[in-house]
Amino acid sequence: MAATLVFDIETVPDVAGLRRLHGLDPALSDADVAEYAFQRRRAQNGTDFLPHYLQRVVTISCVLRDPQQFRVFSLSEPETDEAGIIQRFFDGVERFTPQIVSWNGGGFDLPVLHYRGMLHGVNAPRYWDLGDGDYGDSRDFKWNNYISRYHMRHLDLMDLLAMYQPRANAPLDDLAKLMGYPGKLGMDGSAVWGAYNEGRIAEIRDYCETDVVNTYLVYLRFQQMRGVLDLEERRAEEIFVREQLERIGAPHWEQFLAAWSN
User: Fold this and answer.
1) Residue 12 sits in a domain of what CATH number?
2) How confident is the model at residue 170, as a pLDDT?
């Protein structure tokens, strides 16, 4: 079994960047700066969803599955800053060359990591290998790399299942619940900024971790559909995931397991 890395990010407005771009009064609070940006965005686009390059990364949660382990972990504030969060994520890609799996990672998570990583001078040569690098197996990346949309080294499940048609996209929360998995618990992406302002970074991290485990469970269904797993293997892996989460014993995993109905 090769390493599989399922990931999800949580972001907040880049308040410092917004101050710099718009020359805002230093006396304005962070909340006021963000509200200024939201109102400006609504006037332009009818939505307060800020552009990718103005999304500051506060958490990346991951499931790492390889022959030795099933591990859920987060790279997050306050333990490290945005530059450290992003660098450590790409260091993992460098170390393991994993299959990476996301839900809308091509539409949101990875573009954010590209812009923010470049802003901070992050180094990620393995991730950006397109088959012309110095690695011994670099030529293999010409035909299967992390960047090209139709390659599988990064698997954006939402994009692939919808056959790359945005009108066919499904919400992860709905799809997970239809399959008997817990789906989102206690928070969604729209609540992250408010929670961050209230200092609830641990709650954001816990929410992101449950989202990434939902993604892994949906990925198992996909692996069964494409013939990589049979029914018994998929069910055995789900039992294994339950056991690993039970061993952690944290409240968000207790809630997650209680909501897992299948």
Assistant:
1) 3.30.420.10
2) 97
